[in-house]
Design a protein that fits this description.
This protein is of the alpha+beta class. The protein has 5 helices and 7 strands, in the order E-H-E-H-H-E-E-E-H-E-E-H. The protein is globular and about 35 Å long.
Length: 138
Amino acid sequence: MKISLSKHQVRIRAQELYSGESLPISGVRRTDEPFQFRWWETQPQDESSSSDRQQAAMLLYLELASLAKPAPLHDRFPAQFDCDGGNSLRPDKAIIKAFLREGLVTHSKLGWQLVFDLTDAGRLYAIEAGERALRADP
């Protein structure tokens, strides 16, 4: 899904939300299949949604989805963000697995594109992550 930011701008925003080394967003590699839900379930990893990284990820993904063209997405985000300048990024696979396992998101199709929809628990999680981020801002 097209968004109105460059790859560089997305990475800067990710760094603003999460100061750790491993940003919660990745470049799309040739071997990735972000539009295929089965790909997101491969290579299980033990990660939980309770860390700062996962909370920042939820905020980032929803913020990017609000910049989707031609229409912003609400309470959902795409499996791939197509940035201005022709580069594509995707959510972190381990984070999506944690969100799916913990019932924070489900998946659906929007046209031909895979999107992750927030569940009621996911909406509450996003609200709480936003409140934590506001409290952390100086």
